Amino acid sequence: MKARALLLCMAIAAAVSACATTTSPTGRTQVVGGVSEAQLAQLGEQAFAQVRQQKPQSKDSRQTAYVRCVVASLVRQLPPDWQRLNWEVALFEDPETNAFALPGGKVGVYTGIFKVAKNQDELAGVVSHEIGHVIAHHHNERITRQMGAAGALQILSGLAGARYGEGVGNAVAQGGGMAAQAGLLLPNSRVQESEADVVGQQLMAKAGYDPRGAVALWQNMAAAGGARPPQWLSTHPDPASRLRELQARADGLLPAMEASRKAGNSPRCQ
């Protein structure tokens, strides 16, 4: 048992040694480095290619140009290192109200988003939120955290299996995985969602979009949604709390929007 535990600990120590502590755009302490930025970009590219294989892209050239216009106007306001990424945009034919951004500069939007994003400000609200996840290193942070949780479970299941048998070890791993997801990984995801709201709303105002568009977007989302899981088991913040925070920030970001427009950033995507 001691030899097995030692090997597990050594493997985990090797993985953790590559991690580093950094500060998120909102001042939150993050642990990242489970994978390199180059590896993340490669993973993002692979995931994007997979979605392209699985879902048909829209043949509506006007809507595709509209989405690309919004993405491009937001990307122009990113720091130079982020602007230099090979940003790609795809509009997928899918009725789900969804959009995503991946490491490496890949943005996907589902046509169903137009049910809740009814103008350029509202579309910028969802796209900037997704880009916020990327520039806040949320994918790296989440992968690093999952690696840590997986490593801890390997130790527990290994020790339990050596002491009580393989069946008990497997049960510990399965039960521990559920506990880690509910008590460790999902709360972190809610923090990331709230942080992406902050980063995204700031970005859209900097690009000249009305930050109140994010409020309208999530009001539309809430109206279109149905039953939802309890807040403690959700990867998204409570809708009412989210709307209050978005509204409070929107009022404070109006001067930034106005200054950006005076500087020539007046998006006209349609």
Automatic annotation (TrEMBL):
Gene Ontology CC terms, in alphabetical order: membrane
Q: Which metal ions or organic cofactors does this protein require, according to UniProt?
A: Zn(2+)
- Give the family from UniProt: Belongs to the peptidase M48 family.
By its UniProt entry, which InterPro entries does this protein fall under? Mito/Outer_Membr_Metalloprot, Peptidase_M48
Protein's UniProt keywords contain Metal-binding? yes
**Cofactor binding: number and manner:** Binds 1 zinc ion per subunit.
Give the signal peptide, or none. Answer: 1-20
Q: What is this protein called?
A: M48 family metallopeptidase
Q: Which UniProt keywords apply?
A: Hydrolase, Metal-binding, Metalloprotease, Protease, Signal, Zinc
Q: Where is the Peptidase M48 domain?
A: 62-249
Recorded hits in Gene3D superfamilies, A to Z, give: Metalloproteases ('zincins'), catalytic domain
Q: Which residues cross the membrane?
A: none
| UniProt cross-references to PROSITE patterns, sorted A to Z | PROKAR_LIPOPROTEIN
